[in-house]
Amino acid sequence: MIDADGEQLGVMSITDALAEAGKAGVDLVEVAPNSSPPVCRIMDYGKYRYQQSKKLHTAKKSQTTIQLKEIRIRPKTEEHDRQVKLKHIKRFLGQNNKVKITMMFRGREIIYTDLGRKIMEEIKNELEALCIIDQHPRLEGRNMIMIVSPKK
């Protein structure tokens, strides 16, 4: 048995422990039920639950979630449009999000995978200072995919 101040009161029966808790005006909580003898503590259980929920809330508040954003381009995308997409990628990396860059090949464009790989290498060289390449450009079906994440 442990009292509200954290001092040990020793081994006592359940009725005596409940009487002690009643005198203090708080609850008797079983802390370690598997030990021999079981350990109980006198505490305000409602206040304890409130403090636990507050700790959980502050832990969630300080937690950051990383999203995976996707940018899609094609081998025929013009230079200016690629620069606009590059600005979007830089903005996403600035917000600490991962970015999945997808080069889509439609129809007969699939024969221009070398052109797509060249464009992906240009994008990779442009972003080298801002990010870490998680997955280098790789052809998966009709799409070439590269994943980048922000530097710490």
Which secondary structure elements does this structure contain, and how are they paired or packed?
Blueprint: H1 14-24, E1 27-32, E2 39-43, H2 45-62, E3 68-73, H3 79-94, E4 98-104, H4 113-127, E5 131-140, E6 143-150
Parallel strand pairs: 3-4
Antiparallel strand pairs: 1-2, 4-6, 5-6
Give me the number of helical elements: 4
Radius of gyration: 30 Å
The helix/strand series, from N terminus to C terminus, equals HEEHEHEHEE
Number of strands: 6
Distance between the termini: 49 Å
The rough form would be described as rod-shaped
Helicity, in percent? 25-40%
The low-confidence parts are none
CATH superfamily of the largest domain: Translation initiation factor 3 (IF-3), C-terminal domain
Structural class: alpha+beta
Give average pLDDT, whole number.
90
CATH topology of the largest domain: Translation Initiation Factor IF3
Strand proportion: 25-35%
